[in-house]
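Tokens in:
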């Protein structure tokens, strides 16, 4: 379920370019930050209708719709001339596509694995690290040597092909497991453990998006080059590639809830102890690797934790 996720991880490269160019003269830094947050918030807000559509039509039609929406968002963004067009394309449309792919696929691994559930989730989530690593190094050179428009189009073509292959290969066990697939279950909000899980997810993702979209811009603010700033995104994804399977294995061995709590604390401490004091490229590379390894704790553990809670 991470074949679509690496586009989250590379928006920081586009953000750094937008902030230092005059591609959209009427836009402010707040506009670009909001586009990134809109991308993510739409993906999550679409969960109830995506669940209902999946129950009615099945996973594959909903996810294929998401494939077209995400790829179409990148292609549409490549032709954007005004900032509101970027809001609709690189913000809302890509977010819609991601949500329609991610939400139906979330529970699939938990249906197939019981004892090694977190390890399976970690291996699957590491796919976003591979994609993010490739695009983290490739996006800025594409923008510099070809153009912003073609960088977005190439990204759209690649995500369309990879996502379509993944969607065609996915298999669930709904016929055996028979999940309820409710769009919104209000009665769950009466459970204390569910409220704690939701609170943890809200706080973790608030910090996740801030770090993910701010790292490249921070690098530029301390005088690093665009290539160095974009490479930090790539190193963050390298950390993701290495860390997620390891954390998945550790979660199965030491307990998912305990490990999620400790890793959340470790990620917060790394920001104060490594990121904030960093003023040169080397420490930021180290921070990118460390934070990349533990940053996506939510993605690795939310499905197993939800099944456990």
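Residues out:
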């Amino acid at each position: 379920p991470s074949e679509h996720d690496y586009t989250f991880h590379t928006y920081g490269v586009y953000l750094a370019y937008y902030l230092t160019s005059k591609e959209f003269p009427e836009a402010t830094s707040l506009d670009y930050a909001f586009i990134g947050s809109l991308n993510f918030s739409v993906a999550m807000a679409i969960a109830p209708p995506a669940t209902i559509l999946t129950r009615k039509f099945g996973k594959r039609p909903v996810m294929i719709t998401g494939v077209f929406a995400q790829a179409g968002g990148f292609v549409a963004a490549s032709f954007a001339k005004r900032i509101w067009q970027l809001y609709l394309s690189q913000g809302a449309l890509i977010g819609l596509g991601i949500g329609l792919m991610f939400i139906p696929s979330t529970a699939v691994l938990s249906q197939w694995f019981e004892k090694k559930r977190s390890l399976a989730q970690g291996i699957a989530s590491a796919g976003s690290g591979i994609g993010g690593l490739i695009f983290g190094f490739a996006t800025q050179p594409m923008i510099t040597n070809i153009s912003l428009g073609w960088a977005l189009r190439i990204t759209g073509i690649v995500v369309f092909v990879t996502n379509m292959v993944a969607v065609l290969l996915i298999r669930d066990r709904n016929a055996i497991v028979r999940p309820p697939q409710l769009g919104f279950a209000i009665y769950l909000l009466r459970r204390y453990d569910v409220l704690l899980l939701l609170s943890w997810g809200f706080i973790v993702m608030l910090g996740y998006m801030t770090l993910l979209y701010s790292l490249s811009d921070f690098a530029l603010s301390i005088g690093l080059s665009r290539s160095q700033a974009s490479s930090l995104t790539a190193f963050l994804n390298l950390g993701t590639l290495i860390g997620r399977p390891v954390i998945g294995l550790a979660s199965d061995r030491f307990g998912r809830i305990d490990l999620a709590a400790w890793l959340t604390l470790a990620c917060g401490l790394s920001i104060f102890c490594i990121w904030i004091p960093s003023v040169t490229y080397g420490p930021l590379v180290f921070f990118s690797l460390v934070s990349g390894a533990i940053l996506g704790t939510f993605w690795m553990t939310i499905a197993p934790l939800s099944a456990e809670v």
